[in-house]
């Protein structure tokens, strides 16, 4: 018996304590956010012990404790899988969440329901932990749905705003489409393999895993906002910035990629699904990178860049490198969360101004935020020896050297180049040049809650990639030899993107504002996807449900065929057969005649 | 079984002899005590059945429904207090007596061991329900609704009587416990097809099957709160219960007779849930959502596999509690806004935050959030229909999506947004109401910890 499992469980239990405490008086306390933050940091530190042990000795573990139920031949019990993926991801997620919670203590300090906000964040974190450590599909599904619902609640945090509600509903809808795939995969596994346990799924062989893998791919598409189901992610920026930093960059949205990584033992021999994943990822990464180019809302740009990075992770899975994709998840969490926090800092300082055209010159008034934003952007673009480099460069290299779909590869390279372009755009417009914001605003970033939380992630963005990639045990053998030009591709396209974007941005200052071209409109209107899909489909389906389901079928046909027609025929036939026609005079006349007749006859008879 | 039936009968004198200010509290407490007795039946020590007498028995299919029935009476009483506060005392007592009478009939229906006895009680439950709907409904349309309710269910179930007499004639018995050993496979002939139809249609109308469901939204909309609650929670489940009991008689005809009804249910489930998307009337939305959920139960019962039976049983219990809770919430809105139109209640979260929490939880259980028993029920049904035919996953998937959509649409429309001026001076939520919602949620949550007690006899 060692401390591996007990430390892990302790870390998870610590997270639940503030939730349990929320029924006590403590919840009304002003210090509740502080408690939540501290609990998360403790959980992080404790979870580092098993992670260290894992890194040192490579031990993995499964905890299977509470037997929930056995349905005929299928046993369902609560079990945690503490393997490579969960052991690395749990501390990363806890670390990021810890910083974000500290950040939200600053960002949300004026919110009257800040305690509830922290409870929601913590609940989300718990469901995420359930998702990551789940050992069977049912438990995974609990976490999967849990993060979806918490995302609904957190996006719709400012519930008075219609946009926030719409965005929340949109997120649930797209996630729900993915859930259908998940449920289908569950049904398939149950039917064909008679198990939901991951180990048992992986040891059983079946000729054709296409159907469940398609389901899982659909699920991942929904959760990780891949092409087709991607519009919810930029809309989700309606939520508070800490929520965007936590859910929509570092943890929840990577759940889809994480799911595919979990199931890669089934995927690694399935060419069809791999190709599909590759193409899906490539299309996503390009399209969202294009969309990011022309956005003016700083959060939207970061959101699209998240979407683009998620596409890159999908590409990595598509070229059969799940471990690399996982590494990218971990490194991405640091700098993307920090980018969101920096934009949160800017937005808050400028009185809720999100438009980068109205910023400018922030490097003088917000020096710390500027530094972090630049480092985060450089890390995002894969600047050598920053965090992003260690995963992104490897991804591009292994994509370059694998015999993969050349188009998908090319698309990915273009998207990588665009990453540099839109990062430059943020830096150029928000940080450099002359101030374009109102001079009356009092700008102050010197709040320890803000500085410390960003600083922590800043250190992470610089060193985490190095630390993680050098301490984990090597899994897949990286490509050792390659021509020079292939080795330099990733760097070259990025630098190209930087230079191009810088030149273009500089020229914008001297030029007349042209009427937008069609390419510009394509990009700024998000590829026309929301315009088409968010107008046409709901309109048709809602019209169908109103016109045909409700009016035609329910109120007309079903009503007329049974009740109305029966009563109609009854009425008609009864009036037809009945003697009573309402002819009062005639009835009285006949009545009188019979009376007179009978009287006469009876009288005479007597 | 008498230890439940006699206390239930004695509730009636309790109602009439209680002091005017004690009628609600007395009956509610007493009803809760009765429901505690019924919990004992959930423990089915042997795999078979618990025979109480020649007339009554309970097994793991009827015991959860029995517990649900007895659990619901105190909840109904708690829910209708405000609604009846302006009525004279005698009418209050009459109302309570009707609810008690209904519970009595329902208990006996769920535990009857003889099919004819079951049939008589099945019909008898119509009477108190009809009185509740037509006497205490709020609008004149209640008469029409009562008419629809009575005639749809009567017309559906009259052939069943004939069929039962016929079956009794050639089998010699209609005892559930006996016929499962005596049963012969029915030969395939036209008369047997009609026999199948006669046996199943009664329950399909009650469920209700899509196409025969018109009575349900009308009855739900017009009924007073207790009527809606009991209708959604228990009366619809009579149909599922009856179907699960009687399908044992009808093999192997069900194998091919199921197809049209399966299609109709799968189609109707999507149709009714898409109707929900366009409802403006809160109660009507919940009623249509019931139809859509019950379509899943019909599909599950017709597939006839162990998983589908487990799913159907779990879904019936889960839906009973959830939809009853939704009706309670709708009623608490109605008592404040005086309208069932959803948009008039928007922004209520600002004013009644605790009520918003109940709304949230109820909507989440309605859309089958794991690990609630609603999910267990739905998941099992989806699994079994997937194994029956892979293509059904498309329809099931669409239904899952739409269910989530309308549940959250309902939540957002009633709770979120800016509140309007006319709701500024509404009453805060009462302890009674909060207790009512808790008592709905508590079983839901506790059952998710140990769902096997509601998974039916095949578990």
Automatic annotation (TrEMBL), chain A:
Compartments, as annotated in UniProt: Mitochondrion inner membrane
Main localization (coarse): mitochondrion
A single cellular component GO annotation: mitochondrial inner membrane
Keyword Manganese: no
InterPro entries linked: NADH_DH_su5_C, NADHpl_OxRdtase_5_subgr, ND/Mrp_TM, NU5C-like, Proton_antipo_N
Membrane topology: Multi-pass membrane protein
TM region(s), chain numbering: 6-27, 39-58, 84-105, 117-134, 140-160, 172-191, 245-263, 275-294, 362-386, 406-432, 453-472, 484-502, 586-605
Coiled coil: none
Substrates-to-products reaction catalysed: a ubiquinone + NADH + 5 H(+)(in) = a ubiquinol + NAD(+) + 4 H(+)(out)
EC top class named in words: translocase
One GO biological process term: ATP synthesis coupled electron transport
Domain spans labelled NADH:quinone oxidoreductase/Mrp antiporter transmembrane: 134-418
GO terms assigned for molecular function: NADH dehydrogenase (ubiquinone) activity
Enzyme Commission no: 7.1.1.2
Sorted UniProt keywords: Electron transport, Membrane, Mitochondrion, Mitochondrion inner membrane, NAD, Respiratory chain, Translocase, Transmembrane, Transmembrane helix, Transport, Ubiquinone
Domain NADH-Ubiquinone oxidoreductase (complex I) chain 5 N-terminal: 68-118
Domain NADH dehydrogenase subunit 5 C-terminal: 422-601
First and last residue of the signal peptide: none
Family classification: Belongs to the complex I subunit 5 family.
Record function comment: Core subunit of the mitochondrial membrane respiratory chain NADH dehydrogenase (Complex I) which catalyzes electron transfer from NADH through the respiratory chain, using ubiquinone as an electron acceptor. Essential for the catalytic activity and assembly of complex I.
The protein, known as: NADH-ubiquinone oxidoreductase chain 5
Gene: ND5
UniProtKB/TrEMBL annotation, chain B:
Assigned keywords, A-Z: Electron transport, Membrane, Mitochondrion, NAD, Respiratory chain, Translocase, Transmembrane, Transmembrane helix, Transport, Ubiquinone
TM spans (from-to): 21-42, 54-73, 94-110, 116-133, 145-167, 193-216, 223-244, 256-277, 284-303, 309-330, 351-369, 389-413
Residue stretches making up the NADH:ubiquinone oxidoreductase chain 4 N-terminal domain: 1-109
Gene it is expressed from: ND4
GO function terms (MF aspect): NADH dehydrogenase (ubiquinone) activity
Pfam family, one: Proton_antipo_M
Protein's name according to its UniProt entry: NADH-ubiquinone oxidoreductase chain 4
Functional summary from the UniProt entry: Core subunit of the mitochondrial membrane respiratory chain NADH dehydrogenase (Complex I) which catalyzes electron transfer from NADH through the respiratory chain, using ubiquinone as an electron acceptor. Essential for the catalytic activity and assembly of complex I.
Matching InterPro entries: NADH4_N, NADH_Q_OxRdtase_chainM/4, NADH_UbQ_OxRdtase, ND/Mrp_TM
GO BP terms in the entry: ATP synthesis coupled electron transport
Annotated catalysed reactions: a ubiquinone + NADH + 5 H(+)(in) = a ubiquinol + NAD(+) + 4 H(+)(out)
Gene Ontology terms: cellular component: mitochondrial membrane
Membership in a protein family: Belongs to the complex I subunit 4 family.
Topology versus the membrane: Multi-pass membrane protein
Domain NADH:quinone oxidoreductase/Mrp antiporter transmembrane: 112-402
Subcellular location: Mitochondrion membrane
Enzyme Commission numbers on file: 7.1.1.2
């Amino acid at each position: 018996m060692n401390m591996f499992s007990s430390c892990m469980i302790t870390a998870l239990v610590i997270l639940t304590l503030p939730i349990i405490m929320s029924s006590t008086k403590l919840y009304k306390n002003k210090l509740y956010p502080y408690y939540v933050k501290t609990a998360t940091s403790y959980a992080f530190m404790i979870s580092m012990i098993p992670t260290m042990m894992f890194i040192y000795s490579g031990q993995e573990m499964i905890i299977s404790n509470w037997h929930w139920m056995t349905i005929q031949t299928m046993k369902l019990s609560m079990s945690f899988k503490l393997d490579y993926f969960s052991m690395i991801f749990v501390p990363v997620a806890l670390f990021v969440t810890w910083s974000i919670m500290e950040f939200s203590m600053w960002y949300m300090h004026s919110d009257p329901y800040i305690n509830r906000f922290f409870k929601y964040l913590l609940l989300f974190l718990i469901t995420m932990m359930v998702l990551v450590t789940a050992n069977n599909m049912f438990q995974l599904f609990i976490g999967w749905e849990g993060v979806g619902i918490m995302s609904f609640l957190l996006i719709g945090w400012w519930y008075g705003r219609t946009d926030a509600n719409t965005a929340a509903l949109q997120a649930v809808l797209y996630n729900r489409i993915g859930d259908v795939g998940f449920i289908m995969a569950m049904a398939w596994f149950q039917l064909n393999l008679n198990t939901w346990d991951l180990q048992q799924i992986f040891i059983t062989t079946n000729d054709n895993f296409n159907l469940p893998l398609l389901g899982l791919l659909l699920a991942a598409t929904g959760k990780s906002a891949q092409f087709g189901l991607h519009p919810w992610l930029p809309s989700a920026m309606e939520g508070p910035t800490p929520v965007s930093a936590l859910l929509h960059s570092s943890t929840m949205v990577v759940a889809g990629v994480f799911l595919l990584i979990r199931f890669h033992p089934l995927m690694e021999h399935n060419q069809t699904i791999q190709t599909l994943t590759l193409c899906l990822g490539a299309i996503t990464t390009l399209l969202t990178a294009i969309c990011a180019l022309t956005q003016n809302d700083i959060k939207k740009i970061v959101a699209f860049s998240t979407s683009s990075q998620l596409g890159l992770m999908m590409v990595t899975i598509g070229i059969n490198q799940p471990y690399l994709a996982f590494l990218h998840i971990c490194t991405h969490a640091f700098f993307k969360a920090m980018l969101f926090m920096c934009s949160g800092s800017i937005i808050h300082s400028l009185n809720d101004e999100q438009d980068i055209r109205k910023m400018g010159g922030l490097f003088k008034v917000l020096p710390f935020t500027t530094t972090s934003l630049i480092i985060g952007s450089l890390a995002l673009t894969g600047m050598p020896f920053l965090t992003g480099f260690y995963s992104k460069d490897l991804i591009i290299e292994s994509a370059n050297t694998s015999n993969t779909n050349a188009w998908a590869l090319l698309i990915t390279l273009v998207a990588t180049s665009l990453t540099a372009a839109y990062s430059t755009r943020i830096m150029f417009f928000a940080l450099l040049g002359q101030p374009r914001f109102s001079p009356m605003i009092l700008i102050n970033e010197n709040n320890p809650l803000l500085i410390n939380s960003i600083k922590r992630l800043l250190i992470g963005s610089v060193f985490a990639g190095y630390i993680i990639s050098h301490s984990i045990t090597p899994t897949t053998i990286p490509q050792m030899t390659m021509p020079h030009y292939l080795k330099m591709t990733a760097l070259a396209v990025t630098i190209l993107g930087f230079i191009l974007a810088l030149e273009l941005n500089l020229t914008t200052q001297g030029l007349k504002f042209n009427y937008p071209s069609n390419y510009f409109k394509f990009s700024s209107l998000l590829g026309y996807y929301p315009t088409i899909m968010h107008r046409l489909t709901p309109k048709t389906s809602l019209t169908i449900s109103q016109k045909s389901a409700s009016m035609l079928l329910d109120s007309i046909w079903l009503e007329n065929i049974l009740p109305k027609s029966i009563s109609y025929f009854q009425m008609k036939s009864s009036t037809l057969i009945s003697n009573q026609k309402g002819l009062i005079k005639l009835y009285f006349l006949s009545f009188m005649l019979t009376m007179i007749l009978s009287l006469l006859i009876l009288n005479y008879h007597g | 079984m008498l230890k439940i039936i006699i206390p239930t009968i004695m509730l009636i004198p309790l109602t009439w002899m209680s002091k005017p200010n004690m009628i609600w509290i007395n009956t509610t407490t007493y009803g809760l005590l009765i429901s505690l007795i019924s919990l004992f039946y959930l423990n089915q020590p042997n795999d078979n059945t618990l025979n109480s007498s020649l007339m009554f028995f309970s097994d793991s299919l009827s015991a959860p429904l029995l517990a649900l029935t007895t659990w619901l009476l105190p909840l109904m009483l708690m829910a209708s207090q405000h609604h009846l506060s302006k009525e004279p005392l005698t009418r209050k007592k009459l109302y309570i007596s009707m609810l008690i009478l209904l519970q009595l009939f329902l208990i006996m229906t769920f535990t009857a061991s003889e099919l004819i006895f079951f049939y008589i009680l099945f019909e008898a439950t119509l009477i108190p329900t009809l009185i509740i709907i037509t006497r205490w409904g709020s609008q004149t349309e209640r008469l029409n609704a009562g008419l629809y309710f009575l005639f749809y269910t009567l017309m559906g179930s009259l052939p069943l009587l004939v069929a039962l007499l016929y079956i009794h004639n050639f089998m010699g018995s209609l005892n559930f416990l006996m016929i499962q050993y005596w049963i012969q496979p029915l030969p395939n002939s036209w008369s047997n097809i009609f026999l199948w139809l006669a046996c199943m249609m009664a329950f399909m109308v009650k469920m209700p099957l899509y196409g025969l469901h018109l009575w349900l939204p009308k009855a739900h909309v017009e009924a007073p709160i207790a009527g809606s609650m009991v209708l959604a929670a228990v009366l619809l489940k009579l149909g599922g219960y009856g179907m699960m009991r009687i399908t044992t008689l009808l093999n192997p005809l069900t194998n091919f007779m199921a197809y049209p009804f399966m299609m109709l249910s799968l189609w109707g489930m999507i149709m009714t849930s898409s109707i929900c998307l366009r409802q403006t009337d809160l109660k009507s939305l919940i009623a249509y959502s019931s139809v859509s959920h019950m379509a899943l139960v019909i599909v599950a019962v017709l597939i006839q596999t162990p998983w589908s039976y487990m799913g159907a049983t779990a879904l019936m219990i889960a839906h009973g509690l959830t939809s009853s809770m939704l009706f309670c919430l709708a009623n608490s809105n109605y008592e404040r806004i005086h309208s069932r139109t959803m948009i008039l209640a928007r922004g209520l979260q600002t004013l009644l935050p605790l009520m918003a929490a109940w709304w949230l939880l109820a909507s989440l259980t309605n859309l089958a959030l794991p690990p609630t028993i609603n999910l267990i029920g739905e998941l099992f049904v989806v699994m079994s229909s997937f194994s029956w035919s892979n293509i059904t996953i498309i329809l099931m998937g669409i239904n899952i999506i739409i269910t989530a959509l309308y549940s959250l649409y309902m939540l957002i429309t009633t709770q979120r947004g800016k509140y309007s001026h006319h709701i500024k001076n509404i009453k805060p939520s009462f302890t009674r109401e909060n207790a009512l919602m808790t008592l709905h949620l508590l079983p839901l949550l506790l059952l998710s910890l140990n769902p096997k007690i509601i998974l039916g006899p095949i578990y």
